[in-house]
Amino acid sequence: MGMADGGGAGSLTPLDAAAFVAELAVYAAVARWGWSLPLRGLRPRRPWRTPVRLLLACAAVVGLAVLWGWFAAPTADRPLHGAARVVFEVCWFGAGAAAALHTYLRRGRAV
C-alpha cells in the first residue's frame, strides 16, 4: 500500500518515489520552458527582462502545481478516479513532455 493508496509516510514504495521524481521533472521542464519563451520586442539588456522570465517560469510551475493539488495529489480536494484520472495524468505529464520538447527544439535559436 503506497502513498497513492492513502498509506502513511512509512509505506512509501519505489513506485511512489519514481512518480514523485517524474512530477518534479515536469515542474523543471515547464519552468525551463517558461524561462525560455521568446520575449519579442525586448532588448537583451533591458533590466526587466529577467523578472519577466522569472514570472513566466513561476506561473507555469504554479499553474501545474495547483492542478495537481486539486485533482491528482494523494490529499487532493477533488480527486479523480478511473478514466478521468488517466486522462488527467496523460495530459499533465504530456504538458511536461511538450514543454521539454519545445525548449529542446528552441535551443539552437536565439532566446
TrEMBL record:
Cite the Pfam families for this sequence: DUF2568
The record's listing under InterPro entries reads: DUF2568
Q: Which controlled-vocabulary keywords does the entry list?
A: Membrane, Transmembrane, Transmembrane helix
Residue ranges crossing the lipid bilayer per the database entry: 12-31, 52-71, 83-105
Does the keyword Transmembrane belong to this entry?
yes
Question: What protein does this entry describe?
Answer: YrdB family protein
Q: Which organism is it from?
A: Kitasatospora phosalacinea
